[in-house]
Every structure is written in structure tokens, then in C-alpha cells.
Design brief:
The complex is a heterodimer.
Chain A lengths: L4 H24 L3 H36 L5 H10 L4 H27 L2 E10 L8 E4 L12 E3 L4 E8 L4 E5 L6 E6 L5 E6 L4 E6 L11 E4 L13 E9 L8 E6 L8 E7 L35
Antiparallel strand pairs in A: 1-2, 1-12, 2-5, 3-4, 3-12, 4-5, 6-7, 6-9, 7-8, 8-11, 9-10, 10-11
Chain B lengths: L1 H21 L13 H12 L2 H17 L9 H17 L3 H4 L2 H26 L6 H39 L1
Helix pairs in contact in B: 1-2, 1-3, 2-3, 2-4, 2-6, 2-7, 3-4, 4-6, 6-7
The chains are: A alpha+beta, B mainly alpha.
Chain lengths: 307, 173
């Protein structure tokens, strides 16, 4: 290195470190310039993300199928046997049909509760490099979406609107580690706080330690003041494990979300909440087992030749 | 020289950022997936002088902070990438075992990717960023390292050619 080169490199490094720390300080103090930069970037990126979503949706479905293979192998085997002649047709229409199905179920959910919704397609899944769980949708403030609105999937809560841009919005998924929602157990009305864990499981902390919670209990959103960020009555998930530690201050449980965040393609943003609390009306129906007829074979002895 | 190199490298980094946000982000890959921008910046840093690597790390960190999926405060990725870029370049620059050996570079990138993510977690914890359960963090760290191991060898030839094109063109001319 030439004379002074090392000193200049050190000076450069110090300047860059100070600049980084300065940026962190500005952001933590809530300076709007930083938000402007992020908004501008998202405005520029959203057309590319839209194009990417259109082009890569079929490939995305393929990857999704591959990652779900282990979990649904039985289902796949059954489908393979039943739908051999429909494979070609499904291949072409799979994406559109899947989104339509999701949309229908979202509309059913929203209609039952009386939510006014805006439908949107997912145009980007956020990278997990920052250990966050986000998606970007193709509707924004032009469609009436505002910050802190509830976002639904066809199964229940998907997340909350974190940032809004003119033609897109950033959704913080319910699986995000920073996500928290007030929950109540359907039926018993016990209340608690549900926190995301970075995957489909969430941690429920009950506020009253004297109450009990059981595996299979269904959780619904409690709702917020003026229905933002959460409208009441949205199905969240069901209790999959109860932690009964002897010295625990508050009773905790593991909850499995109804929404499968890795296959989410269409969502609905609740732009207006219900006029009255839907209560437990949105609790998902348990699947009914169709009775299988028992086949009884009666053996009738045939007349023998000796008779 | 530094100004010329940075001015040529900037559009390339913007293009990689666009690919990351418009293409790679379409897929919710198992194990946390990978960031092509992070891998690109680390490869670039390994091949560059420490001060160039610091500037490259700084620029790529700003782009990563601009990403909508960045959970921490603006500047967190900038700081980590700046220090990470400088550190791996400081360790690797001039070491022919790293530079002349593709396996060495890939190994370096995977290890650097892991430590950059760990640094992000530690600074995130200090800055109050939620990062999920311990088991999920471990799964993500291992997953990201595996992805880096898979993606780096594929990208390495292209990225090293780009690097050579920018940094060696003057001497070739």
C-alpha cells in the first residue's frame, strides 16, 4: 500500500461506521426521511414484483408442492390414484383455481362476520434473512388500504398491514417473531396474548393463571379499539400443546395457526369492521366423519351332492 | 480508481438487488432461503481490497436495509455488512489459498454468511428486534448456510468474471 494509503483506509472505515450508526440513530428516533427512502424503493420495486409474481407463480407452486411433499404424502397418493385423467387440466389451471378457491373461502369468512374487505394477490414473499416474516400484496392506499388493518387468509388471520404504498402494501405475517395479537378462547372466553415464533406455531400466554386451557381449544382475535389493528372474531388457530410448568407465572400454550403461511396466494384486507362483534360465529367447523357402511357377508351353505 | 470501480459496480449491485426483490423473494424457500445480494457482496468482498470491500459492504447493506423484509432499524444491515465485508477481505485478501481456490472461496462465503447472520441476531437483540424462538433461529441459520453452500458455487463463476471485468479492465487495456 502506498504512503498514507493505510491511514486513508482507516479514515474511510471510521466514516462509514459513523454513518451507519448515524442511520440507526435516525431510524430509532423516527426520522421521516428514512421512511421516505423505503417508500420510494417499494414504489419502484412493486411493478417488478408484480411482473415477477406473474412469471414465477407456476414455478412457485412447484416448489411449494415439493416442500409440502412429506407432510401430505398420503393425500398426494390418494389424489394421484383418483385424478390421473385430470392431471393435465390441473397443471394449466392449478394456479388460477387455487387462488379462486382461496378467494371464495375468504369471502365466505368475511361475509359471515360482516367485514368489508379488499382482496389482493401476494406479489412477493419477504426474505427470511432478517428473521422476519412478511409478504407484499398488489393493493395499497389507492384501494383504501391503511396501516394497521387486519389481513385475512381463507382460514383466518394472516397478519396485519405494516406499511402502505400507493399500489402495494407490506403485510407483517402472524408468524413474524414481532407479531402479537390479543386472543380469546372460543367458548370459555379466556383471554391471552398470542406471539409469533417465526413458523406456523405461536406462543399463547394467558392473562389469568387460575383458568385452564385444553388441547384443541380454538382461538379467536379479541379485536382492537375502532377495529384496528384487529377486528374481533377472526379465527387464529387451535391449541396444540399446553405447558404446565409448576412455577410459571402465567399459563402458556403452543398454538398452531390455521393459516398456512408458505402457501398463501390471495389475502383480504379488512377495510371496515363489523357493526357488531361476531362472537364465536367464525369458529371453523370440525370435519364431519361420514359413516362408512359396514358390509356384512352372510354365508349360505350350498346344497351338496350327497343331499 | 476507487471511484471508477464503485461507479461501475453500483448498477450491478442495483440489478442484483432487483433480482433479489422481484425474483428470489417470490419463493418462500425452506430453511430461510438465501439472499443473492448477501452472497454477491460477500464474494465481492473476498476478492477485493479491504477498503473496497468496506465500501461494497456499506452499499449492499443500505440496499438490504431498503428491502421491505428488513426487520431491524435502518442502518443495521449497513453496519454489519460494512464490518463483515471489511473483516473477510482483511482475512482473505492476499491469501492465495483463498483466492486461487474456488472451494476455498465457497467455504469462506458460507462461513461469512453464517457469521453475518449471527452478527445480525446479536445486534438485533441489542436493538430490540424480535427474532423468534431459539429452535427456529437454529433452523434458519443452518438452512441459510446450506443454501449459501448450494448457491455460491453456481454464482461464483459469474460473479468472479464480473469482478475481474471491473477491476482488471484497466490493466488489460
Amino acid at each position: 500500500m502506498r504512503n498514507g494509503g493505510e491511514g486513508r483506509a482507516r479514515l474511510l472505515l471510521v466514516i462509514l461506521i459513523v454513518t451507519s450508526l448515524f442511520l440507526i440513530t435516525l431510524d430509532l428516533r423516527g426520522v421521516k426521511v428514512i421512511d421516505g427512502f423505503k417508500q420510494g424503493t417499494q414504489t419502484v420495486l412493486s411493478p417488478f414484483q408484480r411482473a415477477g409474481a406473474v412469471v414465477f407463480n407456476p414455478i412457485k407452486d412447484f416448489f411449494s408442492d415439493v416442500t409440502q411433499l412429506g407432510r401430505t404424502s398420503n393425500q398426494i397418493e390418494k389424489l394421484e390414484a383418483e385424478n390421473a385423467e385430470l392431471k393435465l387440466q390441473l397443471l394449466n389451471r392449478k394456479n388460477a383455481d387455487g387462488q379462486l378457491q382461496q378467494l371464495e373461502e375468504i369471502l365466505d369468512l368475511a361475509g359471515t362476520a360482516g367485514y368489508k374487505i379488499v382482496n389482493a394477490k401476494v406479489i412477493s414473499h419477504g426474505s427470511s434473512q432478517s428473521f422476519s416474516q412478511t409478504i407484499t400484496i398488489d393493493s395499497g392506499s389507492n384501494a383504501g388500504i391503511k396501516k394497521n388493518m387486519t389481513v385475512l387468509s381463507q382460514f383466518g388471520l394472516a397478519g396485519v398491514v405494516k406499511d402502505v404504498y400507493p399500489n402495494s402494501a407490506l403485510i407483517q405475517l402472524a408468524s413474524d417473531p414481532a407479531f402479537k395479537v390479543g386472543a380469546r378462547i372460543a367458548g370459555s372466553q379466556q383471554i391471552g396474548i398470542l406471539s409469533g415464533q417465526g413458523n406456523r406455531s405461536a406462543n399463547l400466554q394467558l392473562l389469568d393463571n387460575s383458568t385452564t386451557i385444553n388441547v384443541g381449544d380454538v382461538l379467536l382475535a379479541r379485536g382492537s379499539i375502532a377495529n384496528r389493528p384487529f377486528v374481533p372474531g377472526v379465527p387464529l388457530g387451535y391449541v396444540s400443546r399446553v405447558d404446565n410448568s409448576a412455577g410459571a407465572i402465567a399459563q402458556t400454550a403452543t398454538v398452531r395457526y390455521y393459516t398456512n403461511f408458505s402457501t398463501i396466494g390471495v389475502v383480504a384486507v379488512v377495510v371496515s369492521g363489523p357493526t357488531s362483534n361476531p362472537g364465536d360465529a367464525l369458529v371453523p367447523q370440525k370435519p364431519r366423519v361420514a359413516p362408512i357402511p359396514t358390509v356384512t357377508v352372510t354365508v349360505t351353505p350350498s346344497p351338496t351332492a350327497s343331499n | 480508481m476507487l471511484t471508477r470501480q464503485i461507479s461501475v459496480a453500483t448498477p450491478i449491485f442495483l440489478l442484483i438487488f432487483l433480482i433479489q426483490e422481484a425474483v428470489i423473494s417470490q419463493f418462500r424457500l425452506p430453511g430461510g432461503g438465501f439472499s443473492i445480494l448477501l452472497i454477491f457482496a460477500l464474494i465481492w468482498a473476498v476478492l477485493s481490497q479491504p477498503e473496497v470491500a468496506a465500501v461494497i459492504g456499506f452499499a449492499s447493506g443500505i440496499l438490504m436495509d431498503l428491502s421491505q423484509s428488513a426487520a431491524g432499524p435502518f442502518g443495521q444491515w449497513t453496519l454489519i455488512m460494512l464490518l463483515g465485508g471489511y473483516a473477510i477481505s482483511y482475512i482473505g485478501y492476499g491469501d492465495d489459498n483463498v483466492h486461487t481456490n474456488a472451494i476455498g472461496i465457497v467455504f469462506f462465503i458460507v462461513v461469512a454468511n453464517f457469521f453475518v447472520e449471527v452478527a445480525y441476531l446479536i445486534t438485533g437483540a441489542l436493538l430490540g428486534v424480535s427474532t423468534g424462538s431459539f429452535s427456529q433461529i437454529i433452523i434458519n441459520l443452518i438452512g441459510m448456510s446450506v443454501w449459501a453452500l448450494l448457491v455460491s458455487p453456481i454464482m461464483l463463476p459469474l460473479f468472479t468474471r464480473l469482478h475481474a471485468l471491473i477491476f482488471d479492465s484497466r490493466s488489460v487495456i
